[in-house]
Amino acid sequence: MIKGLTLLSTRIKQKVNSALLTERCVSCLAPTTDHGLCAACRSDLPANTPACPRCALPLPDSATGLCCGDCLRDPPPFARARIPWRYEFPVDRMIGRYKYQGQRKYGRPLMAGLARHLEEALAREPDCRPEALIAAPMHPARRRQRGFNQAQDLAEYLGRALDLPVLRGRVHRTRRTPTQRGLDRAGRLANLNDSLTLTGEPPASVAIVDDVVTTGATARALASLLKSAGTQRVELWALARTPAPVSPRPHPAVTPPAEQWPDWR
Ligand SMILES: [Zn+2]
Ligand SMILES: [Zn+2]
Fold first, then answer.
1. Region annotation Disordered: residue ranges (predicted)?
2. 93 alpha carbon to ligand 1 midpoint, in Å?
3. Which of 69, 96, 167, 223 is the most exposed place for a label (fewest CB within 10 A)?
């Protein structure tokens, strides 16, 4: 009996501790958090401003309000991109842990922040509200390898937060494309050529959801496909955008130094 109670109290203590710990900031361990990130760490996230209003490419301060050269030369098939952060520290580490190590608690603060960002944007521009969301596709083999599709996970989260339907199982990669990492934009477009197919008729306005936009090649390919199937307006929503130009270098390690990213579990 006593033994049983001791066991029970230990279990309760463990539960209470783990409940308290899950309320701590994923970056600095401060106890007060907003979806897993404290106010100070949230305000330190690298905001994607100024950025190209069309594709959200990060731009220097001197280019505020201007479109990037790519969009001027070759306008993308999506009307605009809404991407609140730059793919820099600590956003890159947070997404890396979420995406490659399946630690959703690192993705959650960013997902909640993106939902808030979109909510505010759509309140200002209600005509831009899409009829449905669609996740950037991932090849099933890669999904099996990773265990989940982070773009689909993000689309489902945003669908619930913004009360928008999510289109599922409508886009497929018809053959496995080598990883996009390390390829320049032309390489990525060639890599994606003919690899996407769409089933059924898409709605008139759709937002494509992805975690990180690098060259925008996947979004361009999917937006073109949607438009050729009858969609009138496409937006691109993502957590983070990489700065240009993209140099073909190996992906940075996703495991940061222990002192910066304590893991208390
Ligand atoms: Zn913090
Ligand atoms: Zn642009």
1. 243-265
2. 14
3. 69
Question: Looking at domain 45-241, which of 3.40.50, 3.40.630, 1.10.1670, 3.20.20 is its CATH number?
Answer: 3.40.50
Give the ligand with the smallest distance to the CA of 40. Answer: 1
CA–centroid distance, 26 to ligand 1, in Å, is 7
Nearest ligand to the CA of 45 is 1
Residue 15's pLDDT is: 47
Ligand nearest to the CA of 261: 1
User: Residue 55 and residue 76: Cα distance in Å, rounded?
Assistant: 8
Instruction: Report residue 106 as tokens.
Output: 């690192």
Strand 85-86 to strand 132-135: parallel, antiparallel, or no bridges (unpaired)?
Answer: unpaired
pLDDT one-digit tens code per residue, 4-52: 444 444 554 454 445 444 578 988 888 888 889 999 999 999 999 999 9
Neighbours of 158 (CB within 10 A): 22
Global pTM value:
0.79
Ligand at shortest distance from the CA of 55: 2
